[in-house]
Design a protein that fits this description.
A hairpin with a 4-residue loop joins strand 1 and strand 2. Helix 1 runs parallel beside helix 5. About 15% of the residues have low confidence. The radius of gyration is 29 Å and the shape is globular. With about 290 residues, it is of the alpha/beta class. The chain starts with a helix and ends with a helix. About 60% of the residues lie in helices and about 5% in strands. It is built from 14 helices and four strands. Bound molecules: 2-acetamido-2-deoxy-beta-D-glucopyranose. The site of 2-acetamido-2-deoxy-beta-D-glucopyranose (NAG) has 9 residues, from loops. The site of 2-acetamido-2-deoxy-beta-D-glucopyranose has 9 residues, from loops. Its EC number is 2.8.2.-. Its main location: Golgi. InterPro entries: Carb_sulfotrans_8-10, Sulfotransferase. Belongs to the sulfotransferase 2 family.
Length: about 290
């Protein structure tokens, strides 16, 4: 009798144990998923509130556009190009840098004072290590791309090609001289369309290298920089580049047909940024 009761009790305890284990496991499993859901929506909520709180002041920009038709024109040219070409190329993430304090995204375009601009935006960071948008978690990346002030600088295509050419073949930097081989075709030559994803990114401001000083002043206003932050940008003094004065000397050495071909290759950059073809090389065609 006692033995039977003990056995019954044993079975009961076992059942209770199993129920407790199952219940705990159930809680652990579903509780975790619920927590995960909660965490996810929390992340979304944070991202959304970040967009709202960090939204760079759009009214500043609208106000700026209305007073500064040049930027509006530049934006319109890009939009027209993108619509007509159907281009949707994403930017090369290596080139998309971000200063979180200023809430500014800058696409590095080589040969367009990119070194100077990097120093203005990231005064204490070594050039190679400037923060990129891609280093941040996805929801923060989206928030930045959506709400930060996005800008880049571009340059007349023939000048830019020559400047890259001089860098690569005429005045080699010491480190390049030491290397036996270095890629002659790299991003220095690439189209801005691909580097910066001009159509995918919806930039707020496009500066021109040729009018750098004026455009930097406009940039300060458009981005709503504080007087203190503005100082670094306002100090820039544009010196007439050696490239522009030697442009004809170099290009007169190549057949006009090649210049036509360059014009075709860089067609997108001419059209999108409102540079005329053959622009500064016009006199070569008049001979
Ligand atoms: C971003 O800009 C701020 C304000 O000018 C500056 O103090 C800060 O060092 C910059 N951030 C980086 C990562 O360089």
């Amino acid at each position: 009798m006692i033995l039977r009761t003990q056995r019954k009790l044993g079975r009961l305890l076992l059942i209770i144990c199993i129920v407790v284990v199952l219940y705990t496991a159930y809680k652990a499993w579903f509780g975790a998923t619920n927590d995960r859901d909660a965490e996810e929506s929390e992340t979304l909520k944070v991202a959304r509130s970040q967009v709202l709180s960090s939204k760079f002041d759009v009214s500043t920009l609208q106000d700026f556009y209305s007073r500064q038709p040049r930027q509006k024109e530049r934006k319109k040219l890009i939009e027209t190009f993108c619509r007509q070409s159907g281009n949707t190329a994403k930017p090369n993430p290596l080139h998309i840098t971000v200063n979180q304090t200023l809430k500014i995204i800058y696409c590095i375009t080589p040969k367009c004072a990119s070194r100077e601009l990097r120093i203005m935006l990231f005064p204490f960071v070594n050039g190679r290590n400037v923060p990129r948008v891609r280093q941040f978690p996805p929801h923060e990346q989206n928030m930045m791309l959506e709400s930060y002030f996005k800008f880049t600088f571009v340059r007349e295509p023939f000048e830019r090609i020559l400047s890259a050419y001089k860098d690569k073949f005429v005045y080699l930097r010491n480190n390049q001289r030491k290397q036996k081989q270095y890629p002659a075709m790299d991003f220095h030559w690439d189209n801005y369309v691909n580097i910066c994803g001009m159509c995918a990114m919806n930039y707020d401001f496009i500066g021109h290298y040729e009018t750098m000083e004026q455009d930097l002043a406009d940039f300060i206003t458009a981005a709503g920089l504080s007087a203190e932050d503005a100082r670094r940008f306002a100090d820039y003094k544009h010196t007439q580049s050696k490239t522009s004065s030697s442009l004809l000397k170099y290009y007169s050495q190549i057949p006009l047909e090649w210049i036509d071909i360059l014009g075709q290759i860089y067609k997108a950059n001419f059209e999108m940024f409102g540079y005329n073809f053959p622009g500064p090389l016009k006199s070569l065609y008049e001979k």
